[in-house]
Amino acid sequence: MSFHISQRFIDELLEEDCPYMDLTVEALGIGGEPGLLTCHPKAACVVAGVEVAVRLLESSGCRVACEAASGDRLEAGQVFLRAEGSAGAIHRSLKIAQNVMEYSSGIATRAAGMLESARKANPHVQLAVTRKHFPGTKRLSLAAAQARGARTPQHRGSGRSSLSLIPLCHCRGGR
């Protein structure tokens, strides 16, 4: 299952992160200068959020070449995305694209590791994720978890078998 990411969501991410201008670009007066961005992980990982990052960069006016998709395993230093455009266009979307990929890749890498460990004991086990996510990130978090094989739980009455989920964190009210 893939998640539909609307252009409105992409535009909202850009608007929230950089609603007016990038101060670095303005202070240095480099907005019109040509720029090149290359992306690579610092450590081996399962990359995720790549498609969203590409759309963020393209929506800012960059030309993007991408050599990986969400769910791919990458080695440290392996360049998988290049963007060209004005420094202003690159800087407008750079931090939000980087954050989306870093957080999503962290989720995907951990989910893949959990699933691989569980499948050593039972090769048919399924990893399901719950609705517990940081507010505003549901689409990105669930898509990242699914990038390497996790599943989202089905609603009751869907005709599919139920899953029992064991939460990793507990919260108590009161004293």
Features:
3-stranded antiparallel sheet, two-stranded antiparallel sheet, single chain, alpha+beta, disordered C terminus, 5 helices, 41% helix, 175 residues
Tell me what the structure shows.
The protein has 175 residues and is α+β, with helices and mostly antiparallel strands. The chain has a three-stranded antiparallel sheet with strand order 1-5-3, covered by helices on one side. A two-stranded antiparallel sheet has the order 2-4. The radius of gyration is 19 Å and the shape is elongated. The chain starts with 6 loop residues before the first helix and ends in a 29-residue tail after the last helix. The C terminus is likely disordered.
In short:
The chain is an alpha+beta fold. 41% of the residues lie in helices and 11% in strands.
Low-confidence stretches: 155-175
The count of helical stretches stands at: 5
Shape: elongated
How would a textbook summarize the main sheet? 3 strands, antiparallel
Number of strands: 5
**Average residue-wise pLDDT:** 83
Taking the alpha carbons of the first and last residues, their distance comes to 41 Å
